[in-house]
Amino acid sequence: VDRSHPFWAICEEFSEAQIAPTAGRSLALREAYLLSRGRRLWIHRIEEGVLPFFFAQADLEVAENRAQLIIATRRLADSRFRVPVRDLGLTYGRHRFGQILQAIVRSLFGLSVTDTHSGVCVLTRKLAHLTFAAQRSRTSWFELEALLVAQAHQMRVREQAVTVRIEREKEASRVFSEALAVFSQLWVILRA
Predict the structure, then answer these.
(1) If you average pLDDT over each of 5-19, 84-98, 171-185, which comes out highest?
(2) Rounded to an integer, what is the distance from CA 116 to the centroid of its chain?
(3) Which residue in 43, 60, 73, 121 has the fewest CB atoms around it within 10 Å?
(4) Residues 10, 100: Cα–Cα separation, whole Å
(5) What is the CA angle 83-101-25, rounded to 5?
(6) What is the DSSP string of 76-99?
(7) Distance CA 36, CA 97 (A)
């Protein structure tokens, strides 16, 4: 690994919290937040394959107060995918399904962002604190709840194109079961 990229210098300043998400991803994030001491939080869902260099630019923008939340967005024109040819069909299907889901979520909550739950973001400690205080979902909707809190508090949100490397795409059955879980959690957030 070439460690000359500025990303690695930034990483030296951060500590990593690895929490087993036995009670749900959002609760694991809350536990990691409580263990953290920094002014900015990096959230990286490894399985999404976003290359880590996203964090170098996003962290700089949050540190300079240009935004309180930077979302890694796979759906922008400048985003790139590195996918094995054998998985192109699955990846394309998942992408199309994601576009439909994103449209539903954006219309339900009046959001203007392209990706409401990429699993990868950088945010201020203040926004994290406000989000965890209002949190309703126990699973993977932390980013959506952070977006809603940022919108309510008129905080700046920005999306950043990313490069995604997918070693092996999720099977269609897993995507379908995750979709069912997504819609049940949307109901929880809507009721709050």
Answers:
(1) 84-98
(2) 8
(3) 60
(4) 36
(5) 75
(6) STT-EEE--GGGHHHHHHHHHHHH
(7) 35
